[in-house]
Every structure is written in C-alpha cells, then in structure tokens.
Design goal:
It contains five helices and ten strands; from the N terminus they run αβββββαβββαβαβα. With 161 residues, the chain is α+β, with helices and mostly antiparallel strands. Strands 3-2-1-9-10 form a five-stranded mixed beta sheet. A three-stranded antiparallel beta sheet has the order 5-4-6.
C-alpha cells in the first residue's frame, strides 16, 4: 500500500554525474537540469558558496581563497563532501521545480565502467545523504545502450562500423 501511495506522490530521477557537466532527468518530464559539475568553496571556512552554473560564473572573478573545484575526476568522486552537496543541490533544485513532491525520490546514477566497489559505495552513500530514498547505479555504457533502445537483454552482440 505504501508503495502505491509513494508512487503517486514522487517521481523517479536519473542523474548523469559527469566530470564536466551533470544532468538530471525526471521521468515524464525529460532533462530538467543541465549544469556544470563545479562547486565554489571558501578555502578559509570550508563553506560552499555556489554550485553549478553560479559556481562556473565565479571562476576568475573571486579572491584567491575562493576556489571553483570539480569534485569528480574521470567520473570518480575525488571529494565526497563536496559531491554530496552538489547532489543535494541537484535533487533540491528538481524539487523546487515541483517535479518531485514530498517523498525522497528513487535515484539512478550513471557511473563509469570499471569503477571499484569502494567508488560505487561512495557514489551510493553520497546520493543517499543528499536526499535520495533509494539509489540504483548503472554503468554508463549500459545506460547509453538502453537509451538507444538496443536489445540489452538478448544474448547477442551488435557491432556498428
């Protein structure tokens, strides 16, 4: 019963957490957020000042103690706390747009192929801490194949030249 009620009041989202840009997709709405994976941090206090587009605008226009950083390197989390804040920002921004209601959404996150179990756990933990109810990880090549509507459940291969 709870599952049926939850399904009525929340929507699933997918996050492509990229090294350069991140995108948030809400089922039935399409891509609702597409912003740079940049976070502006005050090095003196550790406070996060801006995320995404706002942080990118700050590059080169701030004092030396304010640094714009990318919390992912080659698709892998290099700074857990900053990545968690960036994920929280994206989830909350999707909620602000009234696409997601009260319940904590189910979130699927694209991860690079070949990441370690520790790296997978870091992405999952950061996403849960950022406000996700359930977290599912999918390797980016599989997500691309599903998006291209390839028959991923069939045992054969498809090669294009």
């Amino acid at each position: 019963m709870f599952y049926k009620i939850r399904k009525l009041f929340s929507e699933d989202i997918a996050i492509d957490l990229g090294t350069t840009n991140s995108m948030v997709y809400v089922r039935g709405k399409g891509i609702v957020i597409q912003e740079p994976s940049v976070v502006a941090v005050n090095q003196k206090t550790g406070q996060i000042l801006a995320i995404g587009e706002e942080a990118k605008k700050m590059v080169g226009k701030t004092p030396a103690h304010i640094v714009a950083t990318r919390p992912l390197v080659a698709g892998v989390i290099s700074d857990f706390e900053v990545t968690e804040q960036m994920l929280r920002y994206f989830i909350e921004k999707a909620r602000e747009r009234k696409f997601i209601l009260n319940f904590r959404p189910r979130v699927i996150v694209g991860i690079p192929c070949g990441v370690t179990e520790v790296e997978k756990k870091a992405v999952s933990d950061a996403t849960k801490s950022a406000g996700a109810g359930e977290v599912f990880l999918i390797e980016e090549p599989m997500a691309a194949a599903i998006g291209a509507r390839l028959p991923v459940q069939e045992p054969g291969g498809i090669f294009y030249c």
